[in-house]
Every structure is written in structure tokens, then in C-alpha cells.
Description:
With 330 residues, the protein is mainly alpha-helical. It is built from twelve helices and five strands. Helix 2 (52-68) crosses helix 11 (268-295). It starts with a strand and ends with a helix. The mean pLDDT is 93.
Amino acid sequence: MKRVLSGIQPTSDSFHLGNYLGAVKQWVELQDGHDAFYCIVDLHALTVETDPALLRKRTLTSAAQLLALGISPEKSTLFVQSQVPQHNQLGWIMECLTGFGEASRMTQFKDKSSKAGADSARVGLFTYPMLMAADILLYQADLVPVGEDQRQHIELTRDIAERFNSRYGKNFVVPEGFILKQGAKIFDLHEPTAKMSKSADTGNGLIEILDAPEVNAKKIKSATTDAGREVKFDLAEKPGISNLLTIHSALSGKSISSLEAEFDGKGYGDFKGAVAEVVVEYLRPIRAKAIELLEDEKHLLQILHQGSEKARSVAQKTIEETYTKLGVVL
């Protein structure tokens, strides 16, 4: 089986619906027929000011949500990045193989550092792509499921792998970026022309996995709608209603055209109430499972430690082979 690797940062108190439909749902599907490694990349979260207690809480919350959303410890290796010290070991080697100009061209660093000012940007933000390359190459991953915004990082990873293989002998699998298929694109409930994102000014437009059912229902019922009363998919003229149609369709499995027919002649109030019910009932068992896992922290940590132990055994083999090729004495 081809090996798949992907990771998610523990930088919020809850995943939102866009995270699930845009990435995690496809991770779940990839478990079947692939040797899947999924990682909570907590070290990457250190590139900004971090509250230690909050980082720990969010790391465990991320793990609980991934399990509740369908990542199976029997099918996949689920682990925490910091519990596998080989990430840092290989990260240093990746830094030593990457040119300064090459690293400087990474658009995410340029974007983030320009907002806060280069003087206040952490060095870790600059070297982030090299650690990401180590995350991938450490496990000899064939496929890396990521969003389009990460394509540049995958290309850098491929370049570094090929550079090492050329200089020191075949060592790394050169991974392919598995750009996640464009699924249901979910927009902010209050700004329906902006992607649903945890970087939004407020959380009022997010459908969060761990929010209480009544909270999500209220958010949907107060979502921004459009002129008129017709429930019709039209991104240009009716972005609010189109977003709600997309959400309903993604979770109910009903086509958008059938939903348009179902709500023909009905007002926005009826439609928003129906969307709220679909969302609440879809997320109810997921939320309950995540809370159950968080309440039994010992069991949750056991799952993560088992995954990390398996990850370390794979990672150590790669480190030993890499060191040997570099002439590092073992």
C-alpha cells in the first residue's frame, strides 16, 4: 500500500465544518487502501506566542476530534509530532540542505512576516517549511494530502529529497502532493464571500464541531441571507443561501437541485431551520464521542502513545539510514 502522511496544527479550541469537509473527511476515506500516518503537528504551533496549558489542551482536543470524526487507530497511525524526536533531528538536516534564497521565497513566510513585520517574525516561522519536509520524508510518504495553499511546501520537500538522493545516494521517497479534491467549499455564515476560517475576526460565522447543538443552531438561523425569498443556488447573487445549500447538501447527501425543489415556495426561515437541524444531528454523535474521549484522558493518551511508538520505529530507521549516508557516526 502507498503511504500517506498529513498533519494538522492544534491552534484552535475546535475544528470547524470547513476543516472537516475540506480535509479530515478525505483523510478518513484515505485510510482504506493506504498506510496512513496522521500527525498533530504541535511543534509547528510554536511559531507564534503560545500558552502552555492551552497548547496541551488543544493538542488533546485535536486528537479527540480526529478520532471522533473517523480516524481509526486500527487503520491509521495517529500521533503527536513532539513525541517523535526524530522530527527535530531530520529538520536540522533539511535546514542544512536548503538555501537561504530558497527558504526566503516561501510565500507563507512572506505573507505572515509582512503582516507583523520581519523584525517580530520568529526564526521558526522561516524554517517551518524545512520541518514540514522532515515530517514528510521521515516516514517515506508516497502521498501528502494537502490543500492547494501547501503546494509550494510539497515542491520544496521534493527538491530537498532529490538533492539529498543525488548527493548522498538514494535515501528518501520523493513524495507526490495529493491535492485534496475540491469538495464542498464552506464559507463564513456572516461573511458568505469569505472562506470559513479560524482566522476570522469572530467565531460567529463558524460552525464548530464542539459547539453545543443550540449554539450552532442559533448561528445558522442568524446567518446572513440575501435579497428575496427564493431558495436558489447562485453564488453571485445569493452567496448566503448558496452557502447554506452547500452545507445542507454536504451533510444530508441530497443534491442542491433537489433541495431547491424541496424548498420551492418556502421562505428563508423554514430553510434555515432545516439546515440547522441537519447540522446539529450530523455533529451530535461526533461531539459526544470527542467529549467522551476527552473525559477519559488516560485512554486518549494511551492511543496517542501507541501511535507515537509506531511512528518512532519508522522514523528511527530513516534517521539511521540518513546519518549513515551523511557520515554521522552512530
